[in-house]
Amino acid sequence: IGVLVAAAAGWLLYRGLYIGLNRPAGVGLLVALGAIGGVALGAYCGFLVAKTDGTILYLSWAVGALLAGATGLALYRGIYIYMRRRAKSPLVMLVGSLGILLAASAFVSIIFTPSGRPLAPPFGTDSWNIGGAFIKQFQVFFIGMAFVLFLGLLFLLKRTNFGKAVRAISDDEEVAKIVGINTTVIIAVIFFIGAAVAALGGIFFGEDIGVRPQMGLALLLKGWVASVVGGIGNVYGALLGGFVLGLVENFGIMDNGIWNLGAEWKDVIAFVLLILFLAFWPKGLLPRK
């Protein structure tokens, strides 16, 4: 926290004074003094955070996401980049990714045992009664964070040069290379962002029901179903597909629901929905244009 505050203060001074005023003489010293003040402010903010009860849990969310992003980047630079160069079919990447996931799950199970573990309870563990349905305050926060991440990714893809490069690579990687886009770097950043966002989702999900080493595969498959339902390659479709999948699953098993089935039928419902969409609506609800 202290480093982020200090870096933000220094960057704002640099952009606002040094660059904004066309680098006039004498401003450099003012920016340097302001940066020193920013470091002091950052240290003070870090001290306040360290002295506040419960902040270790929430800081661990950010640290976990950053570590997961770094792991995803390391996997790309160490394994995937060579697989992409030698693979003659996207199926090779899919099979390789599943192999890495299963190996990582087994490795974690060996170290921490395969049994599930609860995470430290966050804020908002009390439930609200809304129209006869119960929802935890933390779950509302979880939903809000999902929308914040969605809007952030949407802005990144639609309003930045990085997003334009990502969309260009998605359309035709070879043409993107010809026009000067460094596809290796762009894809590496995508791996970092994707792993960090996935880690946040796993952390929030784990805060709600606990964590276990094998949970990643189930969530990955549900994410794939949601992307097919919503429309592969469409950011809006990913959000809509996840919402539709959740509704169909939960309304299908609830008491007095559509089918009134047991909770163990949720996976069956999800994959039947996948088969139906692959058979009749392979482009999803919101096909990519």
- Sheet bearing the most strands, described? 2 strands, antiparallel
Oligomer: single chain
Output the structural class.
mainly alpha
Strand content: under 5%
Count of DSSP-assigned helices: 11
Report the C-alpha radius of gyration, rounded: 23 Å
Mean pLDDT over the residues = 81
Shape: globular
**Roughly how many Å apart are the termini?**
41 Å
Helix content: over 70%
Biggest sheet, strands in spatial order? Answer: 1-2
Order of helices and strands: HHHHEEHHHHHHH
Low-pLDDT ranges: none
Question: Care to count the β-strands?
Answer: 2
Annotation keywords:
single chain, 11 helices, 74% helix, 3% strand, globular
Q: What is the gist of this entry?
A:
The chain has helices at about 1-20, 25-50, 55-85, 90-110, 135-160, 160-170, 175-180, 185-210, 215-230, 235-255, 265-280; strands at about 125-130, 135.
Report what the structure shows.
- By secondary structure, this protein is an all-alpha fold.
- It is built from eleven helices and two strands; from the N terminus they run ααααββααααααα.
- It has helices at 2-19, 27-51, 55-86, 90-112, 137-159, 161-171, 173-178, 183-209, 215-230, 235-253, 266-280; strands at 127-130, 133-136.
- A two-stranded antiparallel sheet has the order 1-2.
- Helix 6 (161-171) packs across helix 8.
- The radius of gyration is 23 Å and the shape is globular.
- The chain starts with a helix and ends in a 9-residue tail after the last helix.
Write the SSE topology.
Blueprint: H1 2-19, H2 27-51, H3 55-86, H4 90-112, E1 127-130, E2 133-136, H5 137-159, H6 161-171, H7 173-178, H8 183-209, H9 215-230, H10 235-253, H11 266-280
Helix pairs in contact: 1-2, 3-8, 5-6, 5-8, 6-8, 9-10, 9-11, 10-11
